[in-house]
Specification:
D-Maltodextrin-Binding Protein, domain 2, 43% helix, 11-stranded mixed sheet
């Protein structure tokens, strides 16, 4: 009996050890993401190295395609992703409203700015919307309002295609002193709509446009490769977009999904984000950042979510009407 009791105790200990290993991140994890490939690769590699029992499968596509994939999964009844990691918070608010997301407290959530925290999703990095200009800024562009100068050839990305462009629409569309009238002024001044922030950068680099609204990451990456462009951190403020991550409530194993979020918010995860060219969400981690003293604003995504249909309708009337 004593021998049997010892065996049962050992089996119980092994079971507890296995459970502990699982809670630290084992099993197969499926991630849907719109984040750039190099950043995804760095974070997945780091997570798998820190959690030898874990294996990560990734579906990476633009935000719209990720949303379509999730919706198709829901309609078919198929298991969807365990983790979703996006470039802006808009879709997260819909998933939260639909009750799809797990509510819990990640280990690193307390280190995040208020604008990057909800009950079900958390910021991982910051994307900055800026103005890209020709090398040396010959047109002297310094503010968002300068883009409405009819003497300039200006490009803007389509908010129906690019999530970061929708962030600009959401901020300006609801900001006193701008509103949809700001886009109407852009259009009346001759602004050209292109698909993505990258298209804006390419157009300015090729001399087709004098300036345009884009992601600082896109402009900096092009400049580092020799493109004849500069970045303007415009007044009254640069627009900061939080890139959020969430765990689906149906995730399996959910402990592994939570561990991946913990990894993104950990010092190692944040360092990996910074090393791949993005601004970490946690202050003090090395990585690209606005120049000291640059005014930065975080759009109110909860309000943008409530007004998204009106914002898109107003924009479409301006640029398609």
């Amino acid at each position: 009996m004593v021998f049997r009791a010892r065996i049962m105790a050992l089996l119980g200990a092994f079971a507890l050890l296995a459970a502990a290993c699982s809670s630290n991140g084992s099993g197969t994890l499926t991630i849907y993401t719109s984040v750039t490939q190099a950043t995804v690769d760095a974070l997945v590699t780091g997570f798998e190295e820190a959690n030898p029992g874990a294996e990560v499968e990734v579906f990476r596509a633009p935000t719209g395609e990720v949303a379509a994939r999730i919706e198709a999964d829901r309609r078919s009844g198929a298991a969807t992703a365990d983790v979703v990691w996006l470039s802006d918070p808009l879709s997260m608010y819909q998933y939260q409203a639909d009750g799809l997301l797990e509510s819990w407290d990640p280990a690193g959530a307390a280190t995040l700015p208020t604008a990057a925290v909800t009950d079900t999703f958390w910021g991982t990095r910051v994307l900055h919307l800026v103005i890209v200009v020709a090398d040396g800024n010959p047109a002297g562009v310094v503010s968002w309002r300068d883009l409405t100068d009819s003497s300039l050839a200006v490009a803007v990305p389509d908010p129906r295609f690019a999530g970061s462009a929708f962030a600009a629409l959401g901020y300006f569309g609801l900001e006193p002193g701008f509103g949809i009238d700001f886009f109407r002024e852009l259009r009346q001044a001759g602004a050209i709509q292109v698909s993505s922030p990258g298209d804006v950068v390419t157009g300015v680099a090729e001399g087709r446009y004098d300036a345009g609204l884009t992601l600082e990451f896109s402009a900096r990456s092009a400049a580092d490769k020799g493109s004849p462009i500069d970045v303007v951190w415009p007044s009254p403020a640069t627009i900061a977009v939080v890139s959020p991550v969430a765990v689906f409530a149906a995730a399996d194993p959910i402990a592994t999904a939570r561990s991946f979020v913990d990894h993104l918010l950990s010092p190692a995860g944040q360092a990996a984000i910074g090393s791949t060219g993005w601004t970490p969400i946690v202050a003090g981690v090395e990585g690209p950042a606005p120049p000291p003293g640059t005014p930065v604003v975080f759009p109110d995504w909860a309000e943008i979510f409530q007004h998204q249909s009106d914002l898109l309708a107003g924009y479409s009337e301006v640029f398609d009407g």
